[in-house]
Structure to design on (1128 residues):
């Protein structure tokens, strides 16, 4: 098995599987977050957040998710290093724009930028909700159930800081770009591709990437522009 | 005649090969392991032979000048490979393939060899399919066939327009398998520069490592030369840039006779020459003649307008087009053999009907078949060829007719071999295009691949055993033997001599001049006066070459100019022998057309009374005229007739 | 169609004496090149110029000059086989260049393809990968009749699409990771698509990939550049098939 994980294709399987896992998470995460803009009372979002915070299944998945992130990130650096070694003398002139997409050639850079964003994001919300707490999170009652007011924290963050909002918009777009290649690439790596599916996967990937980018970008925009009023 | 024993087995034609196989000796597996064989060249012949011999258990060393055995020029063959499978139920048979080949070769090949070739041809297809060659197939899953020039049946198997590539890759894969097993030692970027003989027998070669420049010795119990033809003597040809006649020529100098050197095939469908910067000619597969119609304008003024670029070919109405092949040869039409098609094109162009700027091109038009079958069908059949044509000429053959002109393509002549494919030097074998044996004076389309693979897979592996059975007591050949030292010194001396000329002109300058003389005087039409003139001119250019060639670079490094110089030095000698042979053969047959020997209609006229023989030339030393030996050709199974494709 | 004359071109080319020495770029000027000439014919003319001037000519690999042997291998203006699609360098014509242009010519760069001299690189790594399993293990003779096993036409065609690979290495040269995956996948697909090759498909995929890794090629990140630069347009769906075969092989043993 260790031979498999270090072989060039094996390394890619790891990236692909962890990537697909993270994409599922992203879809769920986005779905939940969109509740922020569909219910200005914040009740829906708070219920969703509460469900995620208390559901035992989610509790089990959480560490796996963390592991997924770690594996995906560590492996990406490992792979990039291996691939970088394969061309000790670089070309003086490269003209690759016609042959491949910018995103596909710069997955590590995109991924790293997403990672930076991710750290900020975790410090902003996850840490506060999970560990340190925050005055805005003061418990409220929704339909008789007491829960943290996550909506208050999120909406206030975006309303009060243009910088953070812009950062979150950028984060969404970077993630979309990363996925525009990552999505179809992971299926290609698993061998789930042929001459019919090649185009289909690429179209599905673009649609997914656009939904993710727009979906995540629209939330801070919504609060920034005061559309909740 | 004493030195020529063709060893053709007794008995009826159809039984000769089987009888021979049962009569020849076989080497035991234990002894095969002790016997070494050198195979030079990794085209269809060389790769298939090396792989098959290694499978049998012999220790094989293989050489090629390319960086990989897969790049040998067999790879460029486009159209297909013939085999007497009769899958199409069109009354094909071994005899019919044999007969077509003998007739196509204008009755200048050995009956027994050709029959054997036809006989083993079905096995080749079986073998290739088993190796994973993706031949074209019908919807039912069975193999498809197409037809080729000079025959009336469909017996040509193909893999799109890349049949040579696919067959070579099949053989290369088989070779790779043996390399991986350690049965074959592969020496890429190594060029054979001389043959080593010990006690009259071939015992090894001297080769130059083209990367380090090192001159190396290699010993073996037998040497197989599979180095292809010498078409590049004409400078412009469809051969690869590196294709050369040097290995075969060194064998000739060591006592192997050269047979029928003047039999050179001129392929009718090549992209015409343009300007004077051209380095090589590109072939357009003969299979195109299945669906393309060849024509020139009927009216000279139209031709002249085309030459000046004032007219588009599509503007010439059908009634003003001269489909000269269909006119002259109604029964075969556009599918006449290559020599006939080439001469007919030359005749029209010489008469002033050529259609490009130089007046040296005819049209090959797909308009009619696109109308009949639709563009998709034509694209499926010839898409890659059309794409290639457009890339080179910037003309879209779906919209305007292709322009084609004949070019040097293949050499039927080559090292003389007996029925066992052994040359006049014991232990030295010659297979594929390098030998002379199967195509007579003209080769039919799709037969070169057949011959290369027949020799390599199914003939040599049997016949070489007959010789090696007597060599089982011979120990491993010692490359420290004085014969190796002597030969190596001769090679080194020659390289240094060339290198130290330090003249003023690059090798290409001389090669181009040689090619021009060859094309003008020893090309599609030859006559005594021109040939004598050519011999004189070749000698002059050669003299100049040896005084004024400049070889840059170093001897102990990769040096393509040095490689070229050695090959061109031999081309002068080959060219001279070619002209000499053409001069001796005062008849027209196949690719060899002597103006003195033509019918009133300008068709080739054979002279069976005087020339039903193989011309075999024996080297007698530098500057000494070679001696001609004749192997009489005996025809017991076919009647010699004047070829007619009308 | 009429050919024009390019009055002056500057050729900036990588010069390196041998595998051990350090190379550098040199720029040469060449005049009066017909747009109908091929790129390599231009190189011939330049070389003959250099020889007459007493300069060592530029070594480059080439042979058939009709786009099938796979010998030619130049990285021209930032692209393997230069600024045209579905061609090898020998099929690239000068009509793709502008008068006065500086053309940058480099050898293919990859750890697995060390430079031998100037623009000539050593591609025996590709041979070695094929030796690791790119064949059907049958000996000469004793095989069934060619029509004994029918093969669906579509399968034969797809096998042929993959088998069209000429082993030039443009995929490696184009890939940002110097990966040989397209090359390996072409052979694996060619044979996996045919019943004759199916028998050994799993072992073949595994052995060839191991060999590829061992020889220092990078891994595939699905950028698709190989497919675009491949002179024979070999599809990256072959890489998916290779991944599949490899996974199957790994799971089953």
């Amino acid at each position: 098995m260790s031979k498999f994980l270090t072989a060039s294709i094996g390394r890619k399987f790891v990236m692909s599987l962890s990537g697909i896992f993270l994409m599922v998470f992203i879809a769920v995460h986005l779905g939940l977050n969109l509740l922020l803009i569909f219910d200005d009372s914040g009740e829906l979002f708070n219920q969703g957040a509460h469900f995620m915070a208390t559901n035992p299944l989610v509790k089990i998945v959480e560490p796996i998710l963390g592991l997924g992130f770690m594996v995906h990130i560590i492996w990406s650096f490992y792979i990039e290093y291996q691939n970088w070694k394969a061309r000790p003398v670089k070309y003086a002139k490269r003209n690759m724009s016609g042959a491949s997409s910018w995103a596909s050639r710069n997955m590590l850079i995109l991924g790293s930028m997403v990672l930076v964003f991710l750290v900020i994001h975790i410090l902003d919300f996850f840490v506060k909700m999970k560990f340190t707490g925050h005055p805005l999170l003061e418990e409220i009652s929704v339909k008789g159930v007491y829960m943290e007011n996550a909506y208050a924290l999120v909406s206030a963050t975006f309303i009060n800081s243009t910088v953070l909002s812009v950062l979150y918009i950028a984060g969404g777009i970077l993630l979309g770009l990363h996925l525009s290649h990552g999505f179809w690439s992971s299926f290609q790596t698993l061998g789930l591709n042929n001459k019919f599916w090649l185009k289909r996967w690429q179209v599905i990937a673009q649609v997914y990437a656009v939904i993710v980018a727009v979906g995540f970008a629209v939330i801070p925009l919504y609060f920034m522009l005061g559309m909740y009023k | 005649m004493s030195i020529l024993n063709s060893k053709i087995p007794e008995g009826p034609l159809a039984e000769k090969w089987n009888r021979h196989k049962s009569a020849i000796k076989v080497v035991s597996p234990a002894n095969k392991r002790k016997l070494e064989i050198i195979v030079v060249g990794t085209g269809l012949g060389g790769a298939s032979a090396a792989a098959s011999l290694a499978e049998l258990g012999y220790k094989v060393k293989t050489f090629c000048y390319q960086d990989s055995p897969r790049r040998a020029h067999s790879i460029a063959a486009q159209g297909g490979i013939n085999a007497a499978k009769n899958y199409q139920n069109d009354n094909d048979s071994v005899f019919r393939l044999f007969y077509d080949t003998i007739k196509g070769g204008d009755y200048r090949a050995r009956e027994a060899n050709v029959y054997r070739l036809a006989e083993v041809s079905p096995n080749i297809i079986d073998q290739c399919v088993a190796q994973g060659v993706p031949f074209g197939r019908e919807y039912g899953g069975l193999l498809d066939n197409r037809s080729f020039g000079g025959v009336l049946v469909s017996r040509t198997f193909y893999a799109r327009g890349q049949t040579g590539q696919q067959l070579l890759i099949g053989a290369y894969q088989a070779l790779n398998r043996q390399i991986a097993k350690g049965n074959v030692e592969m020496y890429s970027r190594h060029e054979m520069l001389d043959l080593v003989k010990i006690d009259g027998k071939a015992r090894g070669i001297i080769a130059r490592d083209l990367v380090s420049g090192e001159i190396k010795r290699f010993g073996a119990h037998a040497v197989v030369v599979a180095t292809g033809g010498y078409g590049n003597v004409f400078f412009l040809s469809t051969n690869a840039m590196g294709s050369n006649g040097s290995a075969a020529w060194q064998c000739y100098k060591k006592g192997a006779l050269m047979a029928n050197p003047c039999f050179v095939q001129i392929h009718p469908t090549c992209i015409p020459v343009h300007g004077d910067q051209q380095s090589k000619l590109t072939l357009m597969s003969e299979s195109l003649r299945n669906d393309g119609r060849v024509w020139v304008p009927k009216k000279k003024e139209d031709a002249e307008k085309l030459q000046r670029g004032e007219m588009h070919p599509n503007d010439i109405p059908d009634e003003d087009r001269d489909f000269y092949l269909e006119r002259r040869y109604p029964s075969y039409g556009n599918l006449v053999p290559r020599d006939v098609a080439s001469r007919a094109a030359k005749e029209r162009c010489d008469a002033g009907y050529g259609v490009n700027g130089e007046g040296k091109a005819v049209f090959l038009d797909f308009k009619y078949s696109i109308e009949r079958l639709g563009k998709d069908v034509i694209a499926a059949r010839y898409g890659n060829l059309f794409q290639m044509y457009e890339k080179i000429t910037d003309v879209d053959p779906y919209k305007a007719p292709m322009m084609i002109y004949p070019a040097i393509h293949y050499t039927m002549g080559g090292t003389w071999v007996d029925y066992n494919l052994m040359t006049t030097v014991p232990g030295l074998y010659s297979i594929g295009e390098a030998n002379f044996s199967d195509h007579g004076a003209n080769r039919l389309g799709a037969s070169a691949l057949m011959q290369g693979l027949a020799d390599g897979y199914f003939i040599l592996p049997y016949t070489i055993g007959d010789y090696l059975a007597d060599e089982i007591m011979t120990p491993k050949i010692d490359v420290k033997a004085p014969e190796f030292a002597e030969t190596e010194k001769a090679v080194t001396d020659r390289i240094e001599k060339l290198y130290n000329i330090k003249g003023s002109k690059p090798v290409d300058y001389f090669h181009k001049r040689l090619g021009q003389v060859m094309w003008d005087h020893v090309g599609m039409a030859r006559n005594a006066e021109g040939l004598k003139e050519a011999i004189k001119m070749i000698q002059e250019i050669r003299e100049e070459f040896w005084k004024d060639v400049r070889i840059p670079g170093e001897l102990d490094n990769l040096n393509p100019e040095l490689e070229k110089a050695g090959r061109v030095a031999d081309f002068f000698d080959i060219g001279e022998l070619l002209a000499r042979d053409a001069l001796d053969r005062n008849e027209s047959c196949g690719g060899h057309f002597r103006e003195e020997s033509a019918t009133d209609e300008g068709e080739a006229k054979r002279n069976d009374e005087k020339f039903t023989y193989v011309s075999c030339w024996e080297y007698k030393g530098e500057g000494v005229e070679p001696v001609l030996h004749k192997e009489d050709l005996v025809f017991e199974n076919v009647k010699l007739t004047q070829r007619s494709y009308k | 169609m009429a050919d024009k004359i390019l009055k002056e071109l500057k050729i900036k080319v990588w010069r390196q004496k041998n595998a051990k020495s350090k190379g550098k770029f040199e720029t040469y000027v060449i005049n009066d090149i017909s747009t109908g000439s091929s790129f390599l014919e231009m190189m011939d003319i330049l070389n003959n110029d250099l020889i007459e001037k007493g300069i060592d000519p530029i070594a480059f690999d080439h042979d058939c000059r009709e786009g099938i042997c796979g010998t030619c291998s130049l990285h021209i203006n930032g692209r393997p086989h230069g600024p045209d699609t579905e061609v090898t360098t020998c099929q690239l014509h000068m009509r793709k260049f502008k008068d006065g242009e500086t053309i940058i010519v480099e050898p293919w760069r990859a750890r697995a393809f060390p430079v031998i001299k100037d623009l000539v690189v050593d591609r025996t790594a590709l041979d070695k990968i094929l030796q690791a399993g790119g064949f059907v293990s049958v000996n000469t003779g004793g095989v069934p009749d060619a029509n004994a096993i029918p093969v669906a036409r579509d399968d034969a065609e797809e096998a042929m699409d993959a088998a069209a690979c000429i082993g030039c290495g443009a995929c490696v040269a184009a890939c940002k990771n110097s990966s040989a995956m397209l090359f390996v996948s072409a052979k694996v697909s060619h044979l996996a698509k045919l019943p004759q090759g199916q028998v050994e498909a799993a072992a073949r995929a595994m052995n060839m990939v191991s060999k590829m890794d061992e020889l220092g090629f990078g891994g595939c990140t699905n950028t698709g550049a190989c497919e675009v630069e491949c002179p024979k347009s070999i599809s990256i769906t072959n890489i998916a098939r290779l991944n599949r075969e490899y996974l199957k092989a790994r799971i089953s043993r």
